[in-house]
Amino acid sequence: MNLEHKYCQLGTDVMVKNGTEISGYASLFGLTDQGGDVVDVGAYRQSLGASKAKGWSIKMLWQHDPSQPIGVWDEVREDAKGLWVKGRLLPDVARAREAAALLEAGAIDGLSIGYRTVKSTKDKAGKRHLSQLELWEVSLVTFPMLPDARVGAKGEDPDAPDLRELAAVLTDARLTIAHI
């Protein structure tokens, strides 16, 4: 079973409250990411229902590292826009305290999903449409796949082009290296 990751920068709807509470979109429907994938509306519905029925939670990890849980997602749901998450960084976890400081300073601003593709199709343009995903985790990350969605951090202009451009360049470099 292959676990895939899909990156999405925290958008202006993402909030960090009291240094520990986080909410926002971890995935946005209908947008083509830098890997050529599009998550379709409803892609998470079955997975979220199955997780809820079994009493399983979607994990909050640091940089997709399963040995570094940093908090809990109290709410994970689909709406018309995408996959919305709300959770808490755990202040008793050292890495969570670091993550909170980095988020508040604007040093990191990305969310990424860890999932397994259940159903997908390719369109004529070669884009892969992900219609059913098994969601495992949502991570705080440094470099997301959708650089146009920005975090609205204290004192930061979410439309500032310099960080978006840097993220796009670094993501392109990472993808190029991965294909060598």
From TrEMBL:
GO terms for molecular function: peptidase activity. InterPro entries: Peptidase_S78_dom, Prohead_protease. NCBIfam families: proheadase_HK97. The keyword Transit peptide does not apply. This is Prohead serine protease domain-containing protein. It holds the Pfam family Peptidase_S78. The keyword Hydrolase applies. Residues 18-154 form the Prohead serine protease domain. GO terms for biological process: proteolysis. Keywords: Hydrolase, Protease, Viral release from host cell.
